[in-house]
Amino acid sequence: MKETKYTRIGEKTLWTKLANGLSVCIVPKPGFARKYAFFSTRYGGMDMRFQLNGEWLDTPAGIAHYLEHKMFDTEEGNALQDLTKNGAEPNAFTSNAITAYYFDSTEHFYDNLKILLSFVSVPYFTEESVAKEQGIIGQEIGMIEDNPEWQVYKRLIECLYKTSPARVSVAGSVESISHITAQTLYDCHKAFYTPSNMCLCVVGDVDAAQVLSITEEILPKEGGPVIPRDYGGEENLTPAVKESVCRMEVSMPSFLAGFKCRPGKGGEAQMRQNLIGDLACDVLMGESSPLYAKLYADGLINGSFGSCYEMLPGVAYAYAGGDSNDPKAVQQAIIKEAARLVKEGIDDAYYQRIVRANFGSTLKSLNSFENIAVSMVEGYFHGYDPYRFPEVFDSIGKEDLIDFLRENIVESHGAISIINPKEESNS
Amino acid sequence: MNEIRKEIMEEVYLTYLPADKFKTGELSIQMVTPLRKETAGLNAMLPAVLRRGTMRCPDMESLAAALDRLYGAQIDYTVRKKGENQCVGFVAGFIDDAYVPANEKLMEQVCRLMGELLLDPVTRNGRFLPAYVEGEKSNLIDAIRAIRNDKRDYADLRLLQEMCADEPYGVSRLGDEESAQHINNQKLYQHYQNLLTTSRVEVFYCGSCSWERVESAVLEALSALPRGVVEMPAVAQLSLPPEEPRLVTEEMDVTQGKLSMGFRCDNTDIPAMIMVNLLFGGSSNSKLFLNVREKLSLCYYASSSFHRVKGIMTVSSGIETKDYQKAYDEILKQLQAVQRGDWEEWEVPGALSTMINSLQSLSDTQGGLENFYLGQAATGQAEAPEDLAAQLRQVTEERIMASAGTVKLDTVYFLKGKEDVQ
Q1: Which residues of B touch A89 (CB under 8 A)?
Q2: Which domains does chain A have, with CATH numbers?
Q3: What's the rounded Cα separation, in Å, for the pair A36 and A105?
Q4: Which residues, at least 6 apart from B391, have a Cβ–Cβ distance to it below 8 Å?
Q5: Which of A105, B136, B159, B349 has the fewest CB within 10 Å, making it most exposed?
Q6: Same structural domain for residues B18 and B153?
Q7: Is residue B422 very low, low, confident or very high in pLDDT (cuts 50, 70, 90)?
Q8: Domain total for chain B?
């Protein structure tokens, strides 16, 4: 395996690509009892339209997530139970861009790894078991839809985008998932769960040779073709709608203000763009920014306020929000402050400490095996090395942030989503 | 783990856990005080007000700047309930000296800042700044109201409020809205002075610094801490359930209903009760998960928790309103199965394995260790995670059944949708 050492952050990685096209990454963690395995496919909620055997297929919204639920079924029973019996804590998630299956355990790690690799690579569905899942996922969708944080986010994305599949909920709707059959699930598994479209990341004090030999033994010998996907073409930077307002059972209004940005193009440039976006959000409205202090002192925001920059396939956006009794005043204050920074520049000492703080918090995130694995896999799928963040930080300057703010944090790219309390609870 | 725990000042304990595998150090300073309805809101509001500014860094902007310069060190205020005690204070995370480019020592600087937050808040005329008190008062009230936003948390909280209405355990960690409304600057400042003098202080450190460095940094940071007659942390009392279980129903405009059930456990065999809870609903291989959720598709989630210092077990589930009776019956049926020892061969070793895994994993996160040791200290328990693991391995099937046999339903809380929405 190819070994890389990162002295500035005290880390090491081992990478290899197997004959079947699977990339394997091991992040050694001596001294830790936990061992964590994360097996992921580059297939998420946004991958609804793709080409298989030369034909374009349109699949129902929510199918990647549905497939994730059904993958735990095995001919003998249920892999979740097999792992839990061994003391492992297994779980899975589907995001816009990836589906991942993982567990951590302190004992029986290699047995658990065999179970993980095997259930993810061998589909087993029946019409009956697929139909039964409709109820469970329908309930999950109901629960998500009751969640104000989810609603405010979903509505923001619907404001920002006209056609991008980012608009569509990863879980789909009760209606869309009713079109899913065992056959569609098999098709999607065949297209996207091939070793060459996947990545295995193991974090912990493990024996690399044993991980590789288990992987070679369990997984198919052949990779698979590259699957072309359609994300509906790149959108211009004007939001579809400027605002969305609705009412729910919440105690005070909450909101998200978003700004459409140019999507990433992969490689280390994408990682750099991501760090610039995060730094720009921090400089503009992070917890130690003058704007944050002023809005907090004026009672326009509270501790729930936060901001971040997000990059998904074919889209990117910055957004900020939380609870507020006057969301639009906060949105306007953000736009005004961005314009001021563009005009007056960023104070040097201020910029330096924001970079310090960002370096510290990125380093801190390496305490989490989950974060390490997710960033390794995402980095791999996008063609960059996440552990090179200290070097990439070094390559960024104040002018990059100013450019980011000038181009993106402007009225014409912005939209806002607001959830107001229902009348009767607004006493 | 080679932990050291020592009283370094009067009723100030330092728990020290050496570890160099993390990227960070973690330091926590907590005041431990009995949970009471009258003071819960004051205690909850206090660290939030203190976190607003010190004499040296009098506002959030200058505090945030100081933390940024310490490489994004974080100091969060915390309000926790441990048994029938409330623990309020600060938890700090900061990068380990090994990764600080300029060879700065961060622990001492962070510790000093925490001491200032606790003992040297910005004041005017012997009071806190009015704007800070008013701001945090409305934040506290918002936070209490916001519990309604997450219906699962809300139902679980309402269950405990109803079930332990006459016990401190029924008091929420944030207190209630009505008491919060009555807080003013004068009362809060007085309470602050009193709390500093009378509360047990628990300090926790995990990281690569030596005991000597940590002890001297903490002694220096807390040198101005006044000590009077210290009130010992409360020991929770066990209670018996009523003759007939109580049923409380509330309505809200929600798609999904929430059914929460509270049980009293009349026994002191804690390791056996931990096993009962795991088998019943404490893992993704439990009877509630496998039967009520997976097999019968009655709920999206169904799980149980064991509140060991209080001898209470609670069930939390999300159901369709129309399925109330079915879900209720099924949950009780699964409890009876545990009481009868009706389980398959793999269930007990599986449950044990899950718990051992989570105890062994504790030492891999600083936050987990801090929370565990604070809980132990606040509830007067001394065992380390590995001691608890050893006790669990000794539990027999007979002890599990015997303990489960003492579990009785006390209160049912049902949050139902206004209409049966599909």
Answers
A1: 284, 354, 357-358
A2: 2-218 (3.30.830.10), 243-425 (3.30.830.10)
A3: 7
A4: B270, B271, B383
A5: B349
A6: yes
A7: very low
A8: 2
What is the ipTM, given to two decimal places? 0.81
Give me the residues of B, 33-52, that contact A with CB < 8 A. Answer: none
In a domain, B234, yes or no: no
Span B250-294, pLDDT tens digits: 998 887 899 999 999 999 999 999 999 999 999 888 999 988 887
B273 and B183 co-located in one domain? no
- Checking if the pLDDT of B363 tops 50, the result is yes
Contact B72 A31 (CB under 8 A): no
What average pLDDT score do residues A76-86 get? 87
Residues with Cβ within 8 Å of A403's Cβ and at least 6 positions away in sequence, in order, are none
- Chain B contacts in chain A segment 190-249 (CB below 8 A): 249
* 3-state secondary structure at position B60: helix
For residues B145 and B265, state if they share a domain: no
Q: Which of B61, B358, B365 best probes binding to A when mutated, by most A CB atoms within 10 angstroms?
A: B61
Q: Which domain holds residue B78?
A: 4-221
Q: Which residues of A are catalytic?
A: 68
pLDDT(A95) > 60: yes
Q: Tell me whether A145 touches chain B (CB under 8 Å).
A: yes
User: Do B196 and B315 sit in the same domain of this protein?
Assistant: no
Of B94, B150, B361, nearest to A104 by CB-CB distance is B361
* Contact assignment for A34 to B142 by CB distance below 8 Å: no
Which parts of B171-298 are beta strand (E)? 200-207, 246-252, 257-265
Res. B421: pLDDT tops 70: no
Judge contact between B137 and B180, C-beta under 8 A: yes
Is B326 domain-assigned?
yes
CATH number at B356 reads: 3.30.830.10
pLDDT, tens digit, 9 for 90 and up, residues B372-418: 999 999 998 888 899 999 999 999 999 999 999 999 999 999 999 87
Is the distance from CB of B147 to CB of B48 less than 8 angstroms?
no
Q: Does the beta carbon of B73 lie under 8 angstroms from any beta carbon of chain A?
A: yes
- Which tokens is A8 given? 């500035």
Which two structure tokens, joined as six digits, stand for B61? Answer: 């902007």
- Nearest CA to CA, how far is B239 from chain A (Å)? 33
Kindly determine whether residue A85 and residue B350, on different chains, have CB atoms separated by under 8 Å.
yes
Interface of A with B in 89-108 (CB under 8 A): 89-90, 104-107
**CB B21 to CB A32 under 8 A?**
yes
| Last-in-domain residue among B188, B221, B254 | B221
With contact defined as beta carbons under 8 Å apart, do B33 and B202 qualify? no
* Cβ contact, residue pair B350, A353, below 8 Å: no
Same-domain pairing of B259 and B212: no
Determine the pLDDT at residue A136.
Answer: 83
**DSSP for residue A422:** P
Count CB atoms within 10 A of the CB of residue B248. 15
Nearest to A33 among B74, B151, B361 (CB): B361
User: How distant is the Cα of B213 from the closest Cα of chain A, in angstroms?
Assistant: 22
B137 and B24 share a domain?
yes
Average pLDDT across chain A, whole number: 94
What's residue A425's pLDDT? 44
Model pLDDT for residues B163-192, shown as the tens digit of each residue: 999 999 999 999 999 999 999 999 999 999
Residue B276 lies in a domain: yes
Backbone angles phi, psi at A95, to 5 degrees: -110, -170
Confidence of residue A424 (pLDDT cuts 50, 70, 90): low
B215/B164 same-domain check? yes
A267 in B contact zone (CB under 8 Å): no
Residue B231 lies in a domain: no
State chain B's mean pLDDT as an integer: 94
Residues B306 and B169 in one domain: no
Choose one of B153, B188, B221: the last residue of a domain.
B221
Please say whether the beta carbons of A107 and A120 come within 8 A: no
pTM: 0.85
Q: Work out the average pLDDT over A318-331.
A: 97
